[in-house]
Amino acid sequence: MTGSPRLAVRLLQWRLPASEHDEIIGDLEEQFAQLRSDRGLTWARRWYWRQAMALASGLQDTPSVTERTRSRVMSMDDLRYAVRRFIKQPGATMASVLTLAFAIGASVAAWSLLSAVLVHPLPVEAAHQLVTIGMYQKKDNTGPLSNDLSYQLYPAVRDSGVFQSLAAGGSWDLLVASGGLAESHPVYFASHSFFDTLGVGMRMGRPFGREDDQQGAPLVAILSDRYWRRAFNADPDAIGRTLTVTNKPVTIIGVTPAGFRGTSLTEAPDLYLPFHTVIDVGNSSTNYFDDGTRQESPTWWVRLFARLQPGMTAAEATRRLAPVKAGERAYGEHLGLTDLNTAALPATLRAGMARFGKLLGITVGLLLLIGCLTVGMLLLLRTEARRDEFALCLALGAARTRLAAGIALDGVLLAAAGAAAALPVAMWLFTGVRAFQLPGGVSIDLLDLHLDNTALVAALASAAVATMVMAMLAGVFGLTANTTAALRARAGATPRIGRRRTRASLVVAQVAISLVLLIGAGLFLRSLASALSLNPGFDTTRTASASLSLGGYGYTPESAATFMADLRVRLSQHPALQSLSISSYQGGMTSSGKVILDGQRTAVPSFVAYTGIDQDYFATMGMAILNGRNISADDRTGSPRVAIVSASFAKLIRKDGEALGHHVTESSNRIGQPPDVLEVVGIVPDVVTNVADLSPMVLYMPIAQLSAPRSATVVLHARTDASAAVNAAVSIIKGMDPAVPPLIFTTMEQRISRQMGPQKLGAVVLGGLGTIAALLTLFGTYVLVESMSVLRRREMGVRAALGATRGQLGGLVMAETLRLIGFGLAAGLLLAWAGAGTIRSFLFCVQPFDAVTIGGVLTVILVLALVVSLRPAVRASRVDLATVLREE
Amino acid sequence: MPRENLGDVEHFVLVALLHLGGESYGVPIMDEIATRTGRAISRPAVYIALRRLESKGLLNSRVGEATAERGGRAKRYFKLTKAGARQLKQSRDAFVRMWEDADHLIHKAAR
């Protein structure tokens, strides 16, 4: 052992041609040995380093040396070295790749989701030619278009010849059985031209023919791909088999292609039946076709879809529709066309969806940014670790472009690995979000989700560019490295402050973004919590309800009443139940209508629900009577009509809520009879079942004073556990009539929770991304504080020698962390303030600047950051000068 | 007549070799130059000069013995060739001619 610096020797060996190793290194060693005995090891080593550097840079004119560094900008060697360097630091490499994978995967998944909803919602052919026909609600053709039309318009528009083809359709929920129990399914009645107009071919079988689409024709059905998979296990022999729709046999003739979900995102029919057969399977009392044979007004349920003539614009088609008449009425003047893809999302939902899209976009954008920041930081650490190497390479004559290319290669490799791992992440996220709903109750599960190629390319490109930028930013230090800096560092001097500042600003940005994401997640969680605590003091977990509709199973109103009375007796004897009530929803009055209060027509601010209840209803629901009395056995047919109102309705009747004794006139559709007047005898608290209506207006009427219903709501209050009570009810009903399918009970908590789909999705998405961001931030903070404390060891040693206490030394490190985090949090608050508008509309009973949420998140980040910097702080406090000097 | 004149370092290296008996290796050459000129000359410059002189045929080299103090690495001995000696002489003569009657001038200029 000569004691010469091994690194210098190795680098000389690396840079010099092998033929010159013996001569040059040998000469150096010989002189080193002499100097070591003359002037000591340290002096000799420094001399050796200077000579090695000078030799390397001085030999740059020698062709044999420069040949390797100048002739190629990039080689397979560089790639191999880069891969080897990554493998040598598995932790940091994994962190970078996973970060990028999550960031890219989340971006792709989010964009694909939005694309499936907003850009390409329907898998139809030449969608730009397809329109849906609507009618203006106002005579001056302003305001929104209604797409639910009367049947009369179908033949009228079809015969006008304005369109290349026209299709009609409409959806009804009917009882469908494919072997087992009959259950309610969305059934779409489609004209024979429906699939042809949309340009949708069959996956199997044939579409409807003209002969199928006639009243009284043999019933045939086309299954949706989803229903075919679910009910028939994707059996290819399903064609020709029979199922029943409202107990009538229907032959299966086809299956729609996968991904086709009808013409609206808010519905997903399970099967399609010919349009005109609706009268054969539907409710016989509904006036589906305004054929002039009935007294009732027509049912507005028909939707019309048209393919424009080649070359014709929608405006031109609208103009040519103007003369269209249906019967005597000139409907044509009030018709308007909407692009089919646009109409797939109802107008009322579009704005909410767009806002949600923006929020999602910002969120994944921030994640992508934080991912790139983290990768940038790791690359920066790598280039710092390679400082000596860069300096030597430069001294040996390496071109700076070559070094830059090497650093960029690191970025490219990381981005490529991240992108490769992003695909499974995106697929996994797709699976994860399937359980959630978008605003407007659009179920993600029913969307035709697939990876959007544009999104993939865009996310990959942005991640690659961002990573490259970060790599280059990191590389600047490699490129500015020089011999002097390397020597200074080796001599124990603190590196230039600029380098530390860059890293500090990366951590500040990370802290800011984490704060924003976590605040967003916190606000969504608070919204959920506020929604679930809407009914304080009300047992939302033990009360469950289900609707029981007997009409489809051959029950008359009388036999249904007997069934329900029997059910009541059997259920009330069951030990799992504390109480039970059977109520009946009677419809209501929308906010555009008026109710008659004490003879005065009064506008209502929101929907008023009319509910028929028995005397156990309030006890079962756990609602106290605030004022007045409950209904009693005396409130029956023939006795004076009475009502109990919710507190909000009471306030509508009288501002002070003292509504007892006032009168509400029942809005009745009974032709030829005067409406009944109900006296308010009791007031009960508001129970919020719909998060969109926090002041529910409910008019409760004794069910005994109403005509016997065939459908009712069964409400159970469990003694201990809701599921035991629900199981009991389901088995009792099955025992009474096996044809009636099991009721689906939901607790109040589930009902409310279901309405908070977007908030839940938001909480999960922002919470998940925020947690990732926070972990990356903590990682970044730790790395930064740790490296700072290492860099300042000498300074700490001197301070300790001069009498600084351990507490003071640790305090220095902690103060630095605190300053860094403080800057980040301040920047994050600014960002959150800027983004408040985006999130506001999704919050429920919570403000974007909710002090509890913001305070909580601030505290969590601060405490965690301080915790991770404890170790470096403790280490810094234990430093002693002698050790530092000895190490040097 | 060679096409190129000798550079400073080349000149020094060749003269050092003369002093060292016409054949030596890197360390004594550098020591000789340092001792005689009173200043340390850049190590890379010496090696570059040695390569160039060898490629011009003014020196030739052979691999010598390895020693422990060199970490077991062999020396490379350089020997002045006839052409090298001729070139050095011409170079020296050129310098001497240039310096004729100039000694007092440089003293005056440097004062």
Average residue-wise pLDDT of chain A: 80
- Overall pLDDT of chain B: 87
Through-space gap between termini of chain A? 20 Å
**Strand share of the residues of chain B?**
15-25%
Silhouette of chain A:
elongated
Number of helices of chain B: 5
Can you lay out the helices and strands and say which pair or pack?
The complex is a heterodimer of chains A (888) and B (111).
Chain A: H1 6-15, H2 18-39, H3 41-58, H4 63-70, H5 76-88, H6 90-119, E1 130-136, E2 145-146, H7 153-160, E3 165-177, E4 183-190, H8 194-198, E5 204-205, E6 220-223, H9 225-232, E7 242-245, E8 248-255, E9 271-274, H10 278-281, E10 303-307, H11 314-321, E11 335-339, H12 340-343, H13 347-385, H14 387-395, H15 400-433, E12 437-438, E13 442-443, H16 453-480, H17 483-490, H18 497-532, E14 543-549, H19 557-572, E15 577-589, E16 594-597, E17 600-603, E18 608-613, H20 617-621, E19 627-628, E20 642-646, H21 647-653, E21 663-665, E22 677-684, E23 697-702, E24 711-718, H22 722-736, E25 746-747, H23 748-755, H24 757-791, H25 793-801, H26 806-840, H27 851-868, H28 870-877, H29 881-887
Parallel strand pairs in A: 4-9, 6-8, 18-23, 20-22
Antiparallel strand pairs in A: 1-2, 1-10, 1-11, 3-4, 3-7, 3-10, 5-8, 6-9, 7-8, 12-13, 14-24, 14-25, 15-18, 15-24, 16-17, 16-21, 19-22, 20-23, 21-22
Helix pairs in contact in A: 1-3, 2-3, 5-15, 6-13, 6-15, 6-16, 13-16, 13-18, 13-24, 14-17, 15-16, 18-24, 18-26, 18-27, 19-22, 24-26, 24-27, 24-28, 25-29, 26-27, 26-28
Chain B: H1 8-19, E1 23-24, H2 26-37, H3 43-55, E2 59-67, E3 73-80, H4 82-99, H5 103-110
Antiparallel strand pairs in B: 1-3, 2-3
